[in-house]
Design brief:
This protein is of the alpha+beta class and 428 residues long. The protein has 11 helices and 15 strands. The strands form 4 sheets. Strands 1, 4, 5, 7, 8 and 9 form a 6-stranded antiparallel β-sheet that branches. Strands 13-12-14-15 form a 4-stranded parallel β-sheet, with helices on both faces. Helix 11 links the parallel strand 14 and strand 15. It is elongated and about 140 Å long.
Length: 428
């Protein structure tokens, strides 16, 4: 919709009410003329008609005007509060005003006028201080629960000539569960057309998706009679990954996951696969001199294909459990550990799974994001069937599965039990 069409549409929306209101004004003037001419009955009739027309015009125009305003005044009043000094000053003005009216003293009237003007000036200056401000923020690339992090908050004064004074910014972070966290910082002075930064150190108590719901900018400038504020709504999400803990007590259960294993296929490993006749293009470093001496011709060595250990972490989120958050923390800690060991890793939950074909750094980031958003999901299907369908490794018998489940002890199917290490929620 172009600008010209938007203006025409607004005129058409307000045109009926404006015409009726204009006609009501004309009728009211005619009623006044009739009253001066002594035609009182005619004047009363025209007055009643003008009143009815004015009411109709108000019913048409007022709701549309209120819809355009969107209650911004009421929103600003929510951030307007009197300070102790302001309440005392208001009481003092009231006492002096009563004394001035009773005595008629011009000096007292001047004092009351000056105090009232100071209130008016405070409101105007506070409005100017809060105008023309834009807030920005920079979060670390990775945020973990219970780990302190530093955030860079920036506040820009976009006014070209006027500085801003004594500003306090309150940023509200809301989690998906509805919990609200507030970060507050103070800017004593902002030069015009400049950007000022402030570093905030904060520790998120738990994992999850946090949304910046609003930012309140408040000031008591210049006299501190009241605090006036302005609300900004940046609407941005922040991912806080699960807490990463050491898993020393868990490592002794997985001794065979260290190192690299060999297959019975030809490749670039270290174990001997076969000894064959030399062919053009073979490396002289692979010549097996002892066998060559026995048969009287050059023989070369082929090696087995080596592959790295593959780990699949299966998190059971099909049933509510009081230790679910501990299970998420364990899954994140195990994924981080094997990522540092250099093993390809995959995460499987009831509603999602990661892609093990991604690069190692992408594998870990994808797993942490899935765990950050993980919730209990009542899928109705068996978690063991979901594991079988979602595992995307080519050779599932060569993948070691770490199953973290809320199922009762002994209920894990034998096929999964033989190739997995099972951790029950009640053991955490």
């Amino acid at each position: 919709m172009n600008r010209r069409f938007w203006i025409d549409w607004k005129w058409r929306e307000f045109l009926p009410g404006s015409v009726i209101l204009t006609l009501a004004l004309i009728v009211a003037l005619a009623s006044s003329s009739a009253a001066h001419a002594g035609k009182y009955f005619f004047a009363a009739t025209l007055s009643l008609l003008a009143l009815i027309m004015a009411l109709v015009a108000g019913m048409i125009l007022v709701p549309k005007l209120l819809a355009q305003v969107r209650w911004r005044i009421l929103a600003s009043l929510q951030l307007f509060t009197f300070t102790g000094l302001g309440i005392f000053s208001a009481f003092l003005i009231t006492v002096i005003a009563i004394a001035a009216l009773n005595t008629g003293n011009n000096l007292l009237i001047l004092i009351v006028s000056a105090l009232l003007v100071s209130y008016l000036v405070s409101g105007i200056l506070a409005k100017l201080v809060l105008s023309g401000l834009a807030i920005g923020y920079h979060f670390p690339s990775q945020l973990f629960a219970t780990r302190p992090a530093h955030f860079l908050w920036t506040l820009r004064n976009e006014k070209r000539w006027m500085p801003s004074f004594s500003l306090r910014a309150e940023t509200f972070l809301e989690s998906i569960e509805g919990a609200t966290h507030c970060l507050s910082f103070y800017f004593p002075f902002l030069e015009p057309d400049r950007t000022h930064s402030h570093t905030v150190r904060y520790k998120f108590p738990r994992r999850g998706v946090y949304r910046i719901s609003k930012v309140n900018l408040m000031t008591r400038f210049p006299f501190g009679f009241f605090q006036r504020g302005r609300a900004l709504h940046p609407e941005r999400e922040v991912l806080v990954y699960p807490e990463i803990k050491p898993i020393e007590n868990f490592m002794h259960l997985l001794p065979f996951l260290q190192g690299e294993r060999e297959t019975f296929r030809k490749g670039q490993g270290e174990s001997l696969y076969q000894i064959r006749d030399y062919q053009g293009g073979d490396s002289f470093r692979h010549i097996h001199w002892r066998s060559s001496a026995k048969v009287g011709q050059l023989m070369v060595r082929d090696f087995s294909e080596g592959y790295e250990n593959q780990v699949c972490i299966c998190l059971d989120n099909t049933r509510p459990h009081e230790r679910f958050e501990d299970a998420v923390t364990l899954a994140a800690s195990v994924a981080s550990h094997f990522h540092e060991e250099g093993a390809p890793i995959q995460l499987v939950t009831a509603g999602d799974s990661s892609n093990p074909s991604h690069s190692r750094s992408e594998q870990l980031m994808e797993i942490l994001e899935i765990l950050t958003r993980a919730r209990i999901e009542n899928t109705g299907a068996s978690f063991w069937d979901l594991i079988s369908r979602r595992m995307s490794f080519v050779r599932p018998d060569e993948v070691f599965k770490i199953v973290i489940t809320s199922a009762p002890t002994g209920s894990v199917p034998a096929a999964i039990w033989r190739t997995s290490h099972v951790v029950y929620f009640h053991q955490l």
